[in-house]
Amino acid sequence: MAETVVVRDGLAVLVRPIVPEDKTILRAGFERLSPESRYRRFFAPMERLRDSDLAYLTEVDHRDHEALIAINPENGGAIGVARYVRGADPDEAEVAVVVGDPWHGLGVASALLERLVERAREEGIEHFVALVMSDNDEALELFRHVAPDGSRLRRSASGHTEILVDLPEPGLLSPSRLGRLLRAAARGTVTINPWHLLRERIARRRGSGVP
Length: 211
What we know:
Aminopeptidase, alpha+beta, 8 strands, single chain
């Protein structure tokens, strides 16, 4: 369901589930990201999203794979996206969030994530998993400072480090340590769940290979 949310500076954004028809505005939003933001999110100097990438990002089942998009009502452009992809354990889901450079620090990430946590709880998910590359000391150091009780580090099958974090209670994301970690990821301060690894997870969910 679409919802208009007013964030900092009086900016009103429309938050709604992503749909396949969002491919065009998602591509345009990606092209507006700075080269540094693209690299941090995708771990590659990507110049554009492939058609297959856009299909993975927009053709979701809204159950095991949910994605919420923030739209600028003034021009219909994409401001940010938050998503989860359920893992092999049905109680867990990998989480990712990205917000366009001009809207960092306005509360867009929090608005998206609060609603994503609510959707995750509705679908029986209890933990978010943030996967970081094994040499991502920046993210690991942040985790050590903000990790809430019950969180833990573990090694993934791919040899990277996974941060397992309990979902906060409704209304408590913003002051929670999970909120701080995910907002840092949205700003590009740290990188969690890089796209090529998340894409593999989505492909496994669909029961197909990665093109």
